[in-house]
Specification:
This protein is of the alpha+beta class. It has 4 domains: about 80 residues, no CATH class; about 230 residues, Pnp Oxidase, Chain A; about 120 residues, UbiD C-terminal domain-like (3-Layer(aba) Sandwich), CATH 3.40.1670.10; about 40 residues, no CATH class. Helix 8 packs across helix 11. The chain is built from 16 helices and 20 strands. Strands 5, 6, 7, 8, 9, 10, 13 and 14 form an 8-stranded antiparallel sheet that branches. A 5-stranded mixed sheet has the order 16-17-18-20-19, sandwiched between helices.
C-alpha cells in the first residue's frame, strides 16, 4: 500500500511537461486532477452524459471504450480553468490573457522531426481504412441520429496557408468507410482555404490530428480571431510559444502534408471541396440542409446537418496499439469546450484593443454564459479625458472582427469582470439605453449557429447564404472620465478586521458555506 509520504514524493518527482497529451496527463494525475475509471464506457451518449454530470470538474480518463479495445478516451481536460493555468504556468486570469496575447505575436517555429522519431507514426495503416474502427466517434444527445468525430484538428502547413500553419477543429462523419463529411464554418481558416482552392483540379492535402499537445488544442479553438491570426500566420508556432517550446511536426506518409508529431492518432488524406455530401442519412433522405439535429453547437442550441465537403483518408497512423492511444473526445457546449474556444479569443481581443490604442485595455473575459464566440467583457482604464470614447472604438472593432459576436460589454476597473453579478449590477446602474447601446454592424456577416439569425432565412434553408446578421450589440458600461467620484462604490473595512479574532476557523468556514453568488465577490473586495 502506498503511504502518504510516498505519494507526496511521487508527486514531487513529476515535473510539469505539456509537450504531449500523455505527459500532460501524467503531470495532472500527480496533481490530483484526473479522475480515472476502468469501467467500460459507451461513446454513444455515456461519455457526454458523464461529462455533463461533472461539467467544470476534473479530467475524466476512460481506460476501456466500448468497441475500441485499442483505445482510451479523455474529456474535461480544459473544463477547470485552474487546471489550464496549472498546465501552462499562468499565475492569474489576467496573466493568462496577457501571456497568450504575447505568444500570438511571438511564435516559436515548429521543429521538424524525421518520420522514424514521430510517435504518431509508430503504426501506419494504408489497407484497412475504415475510420470508425480506429477513431472514437461520440453521440452527444439522443436528438442526434448518428455519431460524430468532432475532436479532430485539421493541420495545414505551407503553400495552402500562405506559407504559415493552421490548426483548427472540424467535425466529421465517416459514413462511407474512409470517406467522411468535413464541416468548415463559413469565414473560418479552413473555409478560406476551401474557397481559394474550390475550383482546383487537385484536392487539398491535409492531416487530421487527434490527442495533440494541450497547447495545440488551445490554439485550435481560437477561431475567427483573424485580424490577429490572419491567413498565413503560424498557429502551430503560437502553440509552441504558449507551451514554452517548439511543437514537433512530421511529414505525412501518403500525402504532401504535415502532422503534429506528438499526436495519438492522425488521419492523412485529401479534401474534396466540391464533393459535397449530407452529414447524416436523415438529412440526405429528406434532401434538406439546416433542419435535422446533428452535433450541438457552442451557442447552446442543437446543431443541424448540412451538406459538406468530403475528406478521403489515405492513411491512419497512430502510436502503438499496445500503449492504448488516447483520444480527447470533445463534448460541445461544455466548460471544456468553452475554455478551449475562449482562452485564445480573450487574448486576441486584448491584442486587438492594445493595437488600436496601447495602455487602455486592462483585461478581457468571456464567461461560459456568453457562449464562446457570442460575447465578451472588456475592462478599460481611461488615463485622461482624451481617452474617453476609445472604449466604444474597441467595442465596434471587436464586433466587426469577431464574426457573429452578438454582445460586447465595456466596464471600468472597479468591476469584477469574472462575476456576472457584478456585471449585471454595472449594466443596471451605469448604462443609458439611449446613448450607451451600440449596434454597429446591421446587415453584416454572422453565424448560422444562432437561432435568432437562422430565423432571418424565413422559409428558405438555414444556410449562411440565406441568413442575415442583426449587427450585434455593444454596451458602454464604463464610468465617464471625470465623474469617478459620482460613481464611487463604498468599500467596507474587510482589510482591517480578521474574523478569526472573533470566531474559530471551523465557525468561519461553516459561515462561509452559506455564502453564494455576489456576496462572495463583495466580501472579498469589501464593496
Amino acid at each position: 500500500m502506498t503511504t502518504l509520504v510516498e505519494e507526496k514524493e511521487q508527486k514531487a518527482r513529476v515535473t510539469r511537461d505539456v509537450t504531449s497529451l500523455r505527459k500532460a496527463l501524467e503531470f495532472l494525475e500527480a496533481e490530483g486532477d484526473v479522475l480515472t475509471t476502468d469501467a467500460e464506457v459507451d461513446p454513444d451518449l455515456e461519455i457526454t452524459g458523464l461529462q455533463k454530470h461533472l461539467d467544470g470538474g476534473p479530467v475524466l480518463m476512460f481506460n476501456h471504450v466500448k468497441g475500441k479495445p485499442h483505445a482510451r478516451a479523455i474529456t474535461n481536460l480544459f473544463a477547470d480553468i485552474n487546471v489550464v493555468d496549472k498546465m501552462f504556468g499562468f499565475q492569474s486570469p489576467t496573466d493568462r490573457v496577457r501571456k497568450i496575447a504575447h505568444a500570438l505575436t511571438h511564435p516559436l517555429k515548429p521543429a521538424e522531426v524525421p518520420q522514424s522519431q514521430a510517435p504518431c507514426q509508430e503504426e501506419v495503416i494504408t489497407d484497412d481504412l475504415d475510420v470508425n474502427k480506429y477513431i472514437t466517434a461520440i453521440r452527444h444527445t439522443a436528438l442526434e441520429t448518428e455519431l460524430t468525430v468532432g475532436s479532430g484538428i485539421s493541420c495545414v502547413v505551407g503553400e495552402y496557408f500562405k506559407g504559415g500553419s493552421h490548426i483548427g477543429y472540424n467535425r466529421m462523419n465517416f459514413r462511407w468507410g474512409n470517406v467522411g463529411t468535413f464541416q468548415a464554418s463559413p469565414g473560418s481558416h479552413m473555409w478560406q482555404i476551401i474557397t481559394e482552392h474550390y475550383r482546383d483540379e487537385k484536392p487539398i492535402p491535409l492531416t487530421m490530428c487527434f490527442g495533440v499537445p494541450p497547447a495545440c488544442t488551445l490554439l485550435a479553438g481560437g477561431g475567427f480571431d483573424y485580424v490577429i491570426l490572419p491567413k498565413g500566420c503560424d498557429e502551430i508556432g503560437c502553440a509552441g510559444a504558449v507551451q514554452g517550446s517548439s511543437i514537433k511536426i512530421v511529414k505525412a506518409r501518403t500525402v504532401d502534408a504535415w502532422a503534429i508529431a506528438e499526436s495519438e492518432y492522425v488521419l492523412e488524406g485529401l479534401l474534396y471541396p466540391r464533393d459535397k455530401r449530407y452529414e447524416t442519412a436523415e438529412a440526405e433522405k429528406a434532401g434538406v440542409q439546416g433542419k435535422y439535429p446533428f452535433h450541438p453547437e457552442w451557442a447552446g442550441y442543437m446543431g443541424k446537418a448540412y451538406k459538406a465537403p468530403t475528406f478521403h483518408v489515405s492513411a491512419i497512423t497512430m502510436r502503438k496499439r499496445a500503449s492504448k492511444p488516447i483520444i480527447f473526445v470533445l463534448g460541445v457546449h461544455t466548460a471544456d469546450d468553452s475554455n478551449i474556444d475562449t482562452t485564445v479569443r480573450e487574448a486576441a481581443i486584448f491584442e486587438l484593443c492594445e493595437r488600436l490604442q496601447p495602455g487602455i485595455i486592462q483585461d478581457v473575459h468571456i464567461p461560459y454564459c456568453l457562449t464562446d464566440w457570442g460575447g465578451v467583457i472588456i475592462q478599460v482604464k481611461k488615463r485622461n479625458r482624451i481617452e474617453e470614447g476609445w472604449q466604444r472604438n474597441f467595442l465596434a472593432a471587436i464586433l466587426a472582427c469577431n464574426q457573429g459576436m452578438r454582445l460586447a460589454i465595456a466596464v471600468s476597473p472597479d468591476v469584477d469582470i469574472r462575476s456576472m453579478d457584478d456585471i449585471m449590477w454595472c449594466l443596471t446602474t451605469r448604462v443609458n439605453p439611449h446613448t450607451d447601446i451600440l449596434n454597429p454592424l446591421p446587415g453584416g456577416i454572422g453565424q448560422t449557429f444562432q437561432p435568432a439569425e437562422r430565423m432571418t432565412a424565413g422559409e428558405k434553408e438555414w444556410t449562411a447564404s440565406n441568413t442575415r446578421f442583426e449587427g450585434g450589440m455593444g454596451i458602454d458600461a464604463t464610468v465617464p472620465f471625470g465623474y469617478e467620484q459620482d460613481f464611487q462604490r463604498p468599500v467596507y473595512p474587510v482589510d482591517r478586521v480578521d474574523p478569526l479574532q472573533f470566531f474559530t476557523t471551523a465557525q468561519v468556514a461553516k459561515a462561509k458555506e452559506r455564502m453564494r453568488g455576489w456576496v462572495e465577490v463583495l466580501a472579498r473586495t469589501g464593496r
